[in-house]
Amino acid sequence: MITVVRIAKGKGPFYTIQLSEGEDLRVSEDILVRYRLLKGQEISEQTLDEIRKSGGYDYGLQMAMNYLSYQLRTEKEVRTYLKEKEIERDDRDKIVIKLKELTLINDLVYGESYVRTQVRISDKGPQTISQQLKLKGLKPEEIEQALTFYPKDSQIEVAQHTAEKSLKKIHGKSQRETMQKVRQTLMQKGFSPDVITSVMERIPFEIEEEEEYAILVQQADKLWCRHERLDASKRNMKIKQSLYQKGYSFDDIQRYLDEKEVSND
Q: What role does it play (predicted)?
């Protein structure tokens, strides 16, 4: 027979039981009471096996409930957490079943809450949110249901705010390049093409003709300095190619080159 040598209070609702054979068991208060464990008590091998099996489950359940007390978690997150805490696979399965019975784990509820929060505080589109929920372990049908809390009018509202914020950060670009950068930002945030089109139609991108030309001159001067050692033909070709790719009109580019030639005569 094995004897209980010492019982010490551990963290939370757990106790450490030191056995005569040198083994230490970590058990919950429930197991302590259920098996009436006391210092000096003798325990059979069969009872010890039962305590070991129950101990992992009870400890894991308490750890999981504490983990869930801070915020909602998905089933995948709970399983990952329990695995990191070295809870056995069978115990993890039983714990998840118990937590679902207690409605402490519900991936659909988590998804709906997550979407509502992201719509309120973030600048992410539905595609990005969908990817994040997938990584958290939600099933496709759960993600689809959760995204009903992100209707198209809300998507347009969030996307427009994101576009306006992006527009304020863009300086010294042509109108076309500015529009491309804003569109690219919205795509990276996870908004659909039709939502992006709707938003782009609402944003005032028009730049005064002379203002755009002034921006062209700034960029063209840098290109001129970079290629000034080339002969005139090659230099002008490189400047034309670079500025045209940035969205400036051929007429404005040619105007710059004509003015530059005159000023250098």
A: Modulates RecA activity.
